[in-house]
Design brief:
about 240 residues, mainly beta, 8-stranded antiparallel β-barrel, 3 helices
Length: about 240
């Protein structure tokens, strides 16, 4: 054992012994949640969306284990399937460019040409959790904050065309096939709040919001660095384990 190990190991053992033990009534809970992601992509440094880019409403499903540290504080380890992306309104962008440079003929009312960039992630998070009572023993609130890591599982561009005199057409193509260079890792910060409602002595219902702020540039194909933004509206059930 080297000198560094001789110094570090006793310090770690001392720190573990000095950590406050979780009270007996505090239990690890397992939660299953599902909801919708209101997701968008920002393409510049000040956090504003570039012209023509709009949000999408997609899906999120997750599983989380909350490890108690005390009555009020804990650590939530989560994993979820999170759909992200954004929509490019091509006609709106062309109209804005036409207003700036001239030469764009207005499209008929009801016409649309959109490109949806749909990216699905397996997202892992480590969130600090602070709980507080709201009403009696059955209703409480909580706050969450911490880092999140998304690993991309799929990527697709979907072109949607519709007009007053033609049926709607949706055509999807894989990002690699379309030559779209989107990264496979999305690092971000997550924060949110929720309400816990005790349905029985062993089952809680959860309602909450979680906002994920992407920090990674996932592409340079849309006129600048692209970062994900996602507001998740979710509900679920939690049960104690162990």
């Amino acid at each position: 054992m080297n000198r560094l190990s001789k110094l570090v190991l006793p310090a770690l053992l001392t720190a573990v012994c000095l950590m406050p033990a979780a009270p007996v009534q505090a239990q690890t809970t397992l939660s299953l949640t599902g909801g919708v992601n209101i997701t968008s992509m920002d393409t510049d440094s000040d956090g504003t969306r570039s012209p023509g880019l709009e949000s999408l409403t997609r899906m999120s499903v997750g599983l989380a284990a909350t490890l108690p540290v005390s009555d009020r504080f804990g650590l939530q380890l989560g994993g979820r399937y999170a759909q992200k992306g954004g929509r490019l309104d091509v006609l709106r962008l062309m109209e804005m460019m036409g207003d700036m440079f001239g030469g764009f003929e207005e499209m008929p009312p009801g016409a649309s040409l959109d490109i949806d960039y749909e990216m699905d992630y397996v997202e892992l998070s480590v969130l600090a959790r602070a709980g507080f009572p709201l009403s009696g023993d059955r209703v409480s609130g909580h706050l969450l904050a911490g880092p999140a890591l998304g690993l991309r599982s799929s990527c697709e561009g979907v072109v949607s065309i519709s007009g007053p005199d033609r049926p709607a057409l949706d055509q999807g193509v894989g990002c690699d096939e379309a030559g779209l260079d989107f990264g496979t890792v999305d690092v971000g910060l997550a924060g949110g709040a929720g309400i816990d409602i005790g349905l029985t002595d062993s089952v809680d219902a959860h309602l909450g919001l979680l906002y994920t702020l992407g920090l990674s540039n996932v592409s340079d194909d849309l006129g600048g660095s692209v970062k994900h933004r996602a507001l998740t509206i979710r509900a679920g059930l939690g049960v104690p384990i162990g």
